Amino acid sequence: MKKIFSSFKVKHLLRKAAAKFIEEKYPEAINLYKEALQLDPNNFESRLWLGSAYIETKQFSRAIQHLEKANTLKPNRFEPYYQLGILEESLGKFGQAINTFQKVINRCKIGNDRKAEIYGNIAELKLRSRLFEDAIEYGNQALQLYPTYPKVEQIILHAYTMIKERDAN
After folding, report:
1. What is the pTM of this model?
2. Which among 34, 52, 94, 139 is placed 20 to 30 Å from 60, CA to CA?
3. How many degrees, rounded to 5, is the angle at CA 61 between CA 96 and CA 102?
4. Containing H/E element for 146?
């Protein structure tokens, strides 16, 4: 009976926290997610969304801690990997972000539209890392899955332009 009540309480806290998150009241959402984790430390949703709330409040080391824990709880879910990849990219850790995005593709069952988006993210990171041929390769993989993806088309075009400039010198 106590476990059922606890489960109900966690779900209630998650609903309240989600509302606060949507309202961009991140400190309040954080407190509610933490309260839910006190009742169930292995709750995937609490870990995932607490990590996301920490990203929004620029508490990156805490975000990483909770997103990595969410990954261990459900390693086949793409959301924590994706959030970590975006965070690593924003911190300028392109190599780590690429590895994290690769984990999404290799470990998680995701649709082609999401996979194309992730290939596009990798292509952009490769471009920013001046790995132009790799950017083209990943961009083409994205376009195979989602043929009308303007952002990726621009990445590929820019990569070809940079190769041409590099080779002219």
Report:
1. 0.82
2. 139
3. 25
4. none
